[in-house]
Amino acid sequence: MKCRKCGREAVINMHQHKLALCEKCFLEWVPERAQRTIEKHSMFGRDDRILVAVSGGKDSLALWDILHCLGYEVHGIHIELGIDGDGYSAKSLEKVAAFAKERGGLPFDVVDVKAEYGKSVPELARERKGRKVCSLCGLVKRHIMNRAAYSGGYSVIATGHNLDDEAAILFQNSLRWQVGYLARQAPVLPSIDPRLARKAKPLCLLYEREMAAYALVRGIDYIYDECPHSTGSKTLYYKQILNQLDRRSRGAKLHFYSSFVRAKKEQGLFQQQVQDLQLSKCERCGQPTTAPGLCAFCRLWEDRQ
Amino acid sequence: MKIIYRDEEWEIRSGMTTRDAIIKVGLDPDAVLAVREGKLINEDTILKKEDRVTLVAVVSGG
Predict the structure, then answer these.
(1) Is the pTM of this model over 0.80?
(2) Which domains, ranges and CATH numbers included, belong to chain A?
């Protein structure tokens, strides 16, 4: 199989694009695709200070690599969640630190949830029977990223969500027409409050397979293990369903997600839900919240007392 | 010819494509990437007797 661009031996065949590429051309193609996504959705520019969330996984490390190579001003943030299964959190931080060091000391901060707040995320979940680790994890990460962006003066938070992630979330939210969530799913979410930085997903049009291949070819040493709490997760199940669909109809995942994004933009779908959002200020931390009193994050720690 | 995936290993006959080898060991070709001598190889690559191919899962993380 030959590279469509230069005729050398291809390392990857992307059926969804009818495109096979060699190592060199593939390493050019992925950042170019990310850059086109950034421009198409006006995610950020060279003057923006970008906070990139880095977990140690392939997508976030690849994103950090891509943004750095494209010349953006990026600063990493790693949130130490305290997930102990097989030393998952510890291994993740090792990967982040090694990655930054190999690239001449890329700047990043670590926020240790247990050290800052007294409990790790799994410990918090155990105290709250009925609250899954994953939902607490998301809440904690979003809060910490928003606060870090605000205090550090970053205008954008970039995350490594890939197309498979986005399509699975879209599918999940569509099953029950959860319009609130559908309203807030987009390649870029503008800042609607000074304490809520813009949220951008530069990899949202790149298949998970493309990101895994990019990390391998680029020599990025990432954590291969799945999070121990993701076993049996619905998101993984939805990914499998969408992969089956994409096998039968190549590019279906991409069309599903990109058509949704276009419909929102051109036809104003779910705009009402966005406009109806009323925010107040958390009494404790000052972060925006949809409910009066304490925000959901502060309530987590408040309820324990 | 050896195929390795996580902590499993299979010895299978040479001469087939990477894609067929992946299917032969019961895995989904779209769910894994094949690495030989530290290099990514495409699904049409014919595998030789002395090859050791490591398969890497596409899905990882949380």
Answers:
(1) yes
(2) 31-302 (3.40.50.620)
